[in-house]
From TrEMBL:
Bias kind Basic and acidic residues: ranges: 660-671
GO MF term set: GTP binding; GTPase activity; microtubule binding
Annotated region described as Disordered, given as residue ranges: 30-104, 650-671
CDD domains with a match to the protein in the record: DLP_1
Organism placement in taxonomy: Eukaryota, Sar, Stramenopiles, Ochrophyta, Eustigmatophyceae
GO CC field: cytoplasm; membrane; microtubule
Keywords from the named record: GTP-binding, Nucleotide-binding
Residue ranges of every copy of the Dynamin-type G domain listed in the record: 135-423
SUPFAM superfamilies recorded: P-loop containing nucleoside triphosphate hydrolases (SSF52540)
SMART domains assigned: DYNc
Biased composition range(s): Low complexity: 57-75, 84-104
The protein's name: Dynamin like protein
Length: 671
């Protein structure tokens, strides 16, 4: 059983690979075209929304007059049309509560399919968060603001519950992707991000809860527990030194009192590090914010406190760096009730100070005194509505005030912006699906349910293919090079020597030339030879060259052959290691633990062979050193040297005699 478990363990692909393949396949199964309303085409821009009915004190419309229809086609920069009337309901009084009933939601939607767009994007966000990659620029609303701007309070008022951590300094230290789902819409037949809870089944009526991506399947009905979980998950990754991390926390909130919406809450912009925060905390937060708002498909929600100079707004300044024309930036003015007496933000709301294409919305959030006195968010929303209705300036600008107005506007902007980006997203996902399909096909049959009978066979097949690939590399059959960069005809390498060809090159070129390059007389001088002869004779005079001195000098030269041989072993060993590391079959690649184990075993076997091989080379050299064979036909010993000398002298003498006789025969006789 233990061995069976070990085999199953090493035959399981990495978690990221599994999640990536499964998640991409799940996304590919989504019908992305279902969000395109009647009369809309995939390539066409979104139409201007119809004017909704006026809002009253008990219902909230989900449409806006003068919507943010996009001037861009799919995939282009988000350019909503110029607003004259930003929020729903014209000059009608804002509602006193954020509660949205199922009837209000379903009746006010001119196209029910539009509400399916946000859950689709939420599913994509969850997929990308799971695999740790973001191959698509998804439409999303990114919330930025300074620490004291009231950003967290705006989000809590939109949700209608206290759920965000509070405290001094930086509290939000990881991006929080907040996905809101209206349960009344789901109970009416809508779908959430995966369609897993469509209809009434699984949707408790009137209940509110949250779900975290990192704790899938768990529901948090107590929003204080949600707050604690955000703290724990933040500290788990960043520690408790107020550091930050770019890895997001994904939170879904299901409630009958929210509209379908997705927001990304980022750490508050700060200037100076406090306590044990990193010294570069400002640049870290700035880089994180720019990474999110730099996405051309993102909508920037720039939160600014109204009791500060709008010209010094950190959020608007940062948004202008990526959106200089203010085409996709929404300004949110908080703390409207804290402005100095006699002052107001009318010029800002009328777009006269820092113009934004979409414009500004003013809100009033709970202050610390309200929180300490346990003022509920629902009561705070009624208080907010009363403040704007009673204000002599803002009561004529109610279409740009209150949190419900902001929520409705964000819901409509996000839906239509997603619809405009949908064709490009769909085509990109289709291309990704095809790539993943080819990868799945190359990986072979699934092995998630291996039985005892098939486990050994699967393992043997993988090892056999690896051994065959390694053998092909040694023999140069070419199949080993399939997929290698620079592969030529038939898969053979054309850019560099590899495998058996490389080993042959080591033998013939490197090792062979090293041996031929050894000059036996390069390290011997005449003085060394005379000294060796004298030392071998001792006190006796030398008539012939002593054999001992010859052996001594020859053994020194034979020993020089050992080092090139040992170097050849090292070069061949390195090449074999490289072959083992690069001879990965496609099937073996999907099992990284098995691959590492196979390479480890092969390397161990090769390493065990290095010692005996080096020992054999040393033994061969020692054999040659132990006995100098002077009887070899190519060896010229002393006797043979004398014989050759005598033969040469005889030849010279014979030639000289014939030459003298010729001269005598040519001399004329006397007398």
């Amino acid at each position: 059983m233990g061995r069976q478990a070990d085999l199953k363990e090493i035959l399981v692909p990495t978690r990221i690979t599994t999640v990536a393949l499964q998640s991409t396949a799940a996304v590919a199964s989504l019908d992305l075209s279902r969000g395109l309303g009647p009369g809309a085409t995939e390539a066409g821009p979104s139409p201007r929304l119809a004017k909704p009915p006026k809002a009253d004190s008990t219902s909230i419309s989900n449409s806006t007059s003068g919507s943010t229809g996009s001037n861009s086609s799919s995939g282009k920069r988000f350019q909503p049309k110029q607003h004259s009337n930003m929020a729903a309901g014209g000059a009608a009084a804002p509602p006193s509560t954020s509660s949205v009933s199922a009837a209000n939601v379903t009746s006010s939607l001119h196209d029910r399919g539009m509400q399916q767009l946000i859950p689709i994007v939420n599913k994509l966000q969850d997929v990308f968060a799971a695999i740790g990659k973001h191959p698509l620029d998804l439409p999303q609303i990114v919330v930025i603001g300074s620490q004291s701007s009231g950003k967290s309070s705006v989000l809590e008022h939109i949700v209608g519950r206290d759920f965000l951590p509070r405290g001094t300094g930086i509290v939000t230290r990881r991006p929080l992707i907040l996905q809101l789902y209206n349960t009344a819409f789901l109970r009416g037949g809508g779908e959430d991000e995966g369609g897993r809870e469509g209809g009434r089944e699984g949707i408790p009526e009137g209940k509110e809860w949250g779900e975290f991506l990192h704790r899938a399947g768990e529901r948090f009905y107590d929003f204080m527990e949600i707050r604690d979980e955000i703290k724990r998950e933040t500290d788990r990754l960043t520690g408790k030194n107020k550091g930050i991390s770019a890895k997001s926390i994904n939170l879904k909130v299901y409630s009958p009192h929210v509209l379908n919406l997705t927001l990304v809450d980022l750490p508050g912009i700060t200037k100076v590090s406090v306590g044990d925060q990193p010294a570069d905390i400002e640049s870290q937060i700035r880089a994180m914010c720019l990474a999110y708002i730099g996405n051309p498909n993102s909508i920037i929600l720039a939160v600014t406190a109204a009791n500060t100079d709008i010209a010094n707004s950190d959020s608007l300044k940062l948004a202008r760096e990526v959106d200089p024309d203010g085409l996709r930036t929404i300004g949110v003015l908080t703390k409207m009730d804290l402005m100095d007496p006699g002052t107001d933000a009318a010029d800002v709301l009328l777009n006269r100070v820092i113009p934004l294409r979409i414009g500004y919305v003013a809100v009033v959030n709970r202050g610390q005194r309200d929180i300490d006195s346990n003022l509920t968010i629902r009561e705070a929303l009624r208080k907010e509505a009363g403040f704007f209705k009673a204000h002599p300036v803002y009561r004529s600008m109610l279409k740009q005030c209150t949190t419900p107005t902001l929520t409705r506007m964000l819901n409509n902007i996000l839906m239509h912006h997603i619809r405009d980006c949908l064709p490009e997203i769909k085509s990109r996902i289709q291309a990704m699906t095809m790539d993943v399909g080819r990868e799945l096909e190359a990986l072979g049959e699934p092995t998630t349910e291996l039985s005892r009978a098939t486990l050994g066979g699967t393992m043997l097949g993988l090892l056999s293919r690896f051994a065959s690939t390694f053998q092909s590399a040694v023999e140069g059959r070419g199949s080993f090079a399939a997929g290698r960069e620079g592969g030529g005809v038939g898969g053979a390498e054309t850019l560099e020597l590899y495998g058996g060809a490389r080993i042959n090159y080591i033998f013939s070129e490197i090792f062979g030339k090293a041996l031929m390059g050894i000059d036996p007389f390069a390290t011997l001088t005449d003085e060394e030879i005379r000294t060796a002869i004298c030392n071998a004779n001792g006190t006796r005079p030398a008539l012939f060259v002593p054999e001992i001195s010859f052996d001594l000098l020859v053994k020194r030269q034979i020993s020089r052959l050992e080092q090139p041989g040992l170097q050849c072993v090292d070069l061949v060993f390195d090449e074999l290691l490289r072959m083992a590391a690069q001879c990965e079959t496609t099937e073996l690649t999907r099992f990284p633990e098995l691959r590492d184990r196979v390479v480890e075993v092969v390397n161990h076997m090769l390493r065990k062979c290095v010692g005996p091989t080096q020992m054999m080379i040393s033994n061969l050299i020692n054999i040659e050193l132990a006995y100098i064979n002077t009887s070899h036909p190519d060896f010229i010993g002393g006797s043979r040297a004398v014989a050759q000398l005598m033969e040469k002298m005889a030849q010279e003498k014979g030639g000289g005699g014939r030459e003298g006789a010729g001269r005598r025969e040519g001399v004329p006789g006397g007398g």
